[in-house]
Design a protein that fits this description.
The chain is of the alpha+beta class. It has 2 domains: 167 residues, Immunoglobulins (Immunoglobulin-like, Sandwich), CATH 2.60.40; 97 residues, Immunoglobulins (Immunoglobulin-like). The chain contains 2 helices and 22 strands. Strands 1, 3, 5, 9, 11 and 12 form a 6-stranded mixed β-sheet that branches.
């Protein structure tokens, strides 16, 4: 089984629900969605990628057919099943699959094909049709498509289902509000040095998801510098926690702030202050100075003792050579 890189953590953790859902078919190992097509990777039995990694459908595109590209970069053919699931995002962005999640659109989508065999090194296009019910609530509705490779039959007692989860956001026509607010900024109050980790909390207060990507990245202002947070998305009605790091100077009273525009252009902001004081370096300097002082004092005492000994020796030599008796 392929060990997926860290960027697939969202999909890996999302497999917790599917682990329960698949029942006797076995547990699930979920990998990250990826892009592109390539020949089979030598020595790799299983390597499946899906692009795009997420799909955001705007109101004007709802009637258009949407597509995913599924690529088998492993050395063996795989049987793929495409399943639909409701989800809600966790604080760290992982998809928590659960029935009847808020703003579900799993009943709006038809996937074609939903089952297919994909030979090694081949790519398959999967189309998505969206049928919005009458009088839907305006704003974002969402679901996840799970590209599942069920475990085959084998002699072992453990069988592993493998899959990739890709979120789909569907924006229903109506008033669009992508506002969000910062509700907190956490950082250590005191540090011996860097790097410093700042974690902010962002809550979506609008009717659609909010992307903080590329030029629209969320930024931390600290000591006159601008530090970007990683790309992230906060879903409708969801809360996200996101972290970034800052390398402070040796000594620093680091005042940090993060803000985003709110409704009407009024920003929401959060602040934090970190005192950077290299006490370990100060202790090292003090100990070094104390050591040098003790060495110098010892040298002075030794020198004085040598002088006194020399003077005493000269004095003794003079006393022993007095006047001769007649």
């Amino acid at each position: 089984m392929t060990v997926w890189p860290r960027r697939g953590r969202a999909a890996v953790l999302a497999g917790a629900f599917l682990l329960w859902a698949v029942g006797p078919a076995g547990p699930l190992a979920v990998g990250p969605a990826g892009a592109g097509s390539a020949p089979p990777t030598p020595g790799t039995d299983f390597s499946l990628t899906v692009s795009p990694t997420r799909l955001a459908v705007q109101p004007g595109d709802i009637d258009e057919k949407q597509r995913f590209q599924v690529v088998n970069q492993g050395e063996r053919p795989v049987d793929v099943e495409v399943r639909k699931a409701d989800f809600k995002p966790d604080l760290d962005g992982t998809l928590l699959f659960q029935p009847k999640a808020p703003y579900s659109a799993s009943n709006w989508v038809t996937v074609t094909p939903d089952r297919f065999r994909l030979p090694a090194g081949r790519t398959r296009s999967v189309s998505v049709r969206i049928s919005v019910p009458s009088a839907p609530e305006p704003g974002d509705h969402q679901l996840a498509l799970i590209f599942m490779v069920p475990a085959g039959t084998g002699a072992g007692n453990i069988r592993v289902n493998r899959g990739i989860g890709a979120p789909v956001y569907i924006a229903v026509p109506g008033p669009v509000d992508d506002s969000a607010e910062v509700t907190g900024l956490r950082a250590p109050g005191f540090a011996l040095g860097g790097p410093l980790t700042f974690t902010t909390t962002v809550r979506d207060t609008g009717t659609v998801h909010r992307d903080f990507r590329g030029d629209d990245r969320l930024r931390l202002r600290v000591n006159g510098e601008s530090v970007a947070f990683p790309d992230f998305t906060v879903g409708r009605g969801a809360i996200r926690e996101i972290s970034t790091t800052f390398d402070p100077p040796l000594w620093c009273l680091c005042r940090a702030a993060v803000s985003i525009p709110g409704p009407g252009g009024t920003p929401t902001a959060a602040t934090a202050t970190v005192v950077v004081l290299p006490l370990h370096w100060l202790a090292a300097v003090v100990l070094t100075a104390a050591g040098l002082y003790l060495l110098a004092r010892h040298a002075r005492r030794r020198y004085r003792a040598q002088v006194r000994a020399a003077a005493h020796a000269l004095s003794g030599a003079d006393g022993g050579g007095g006047r001769p008796t007649v």
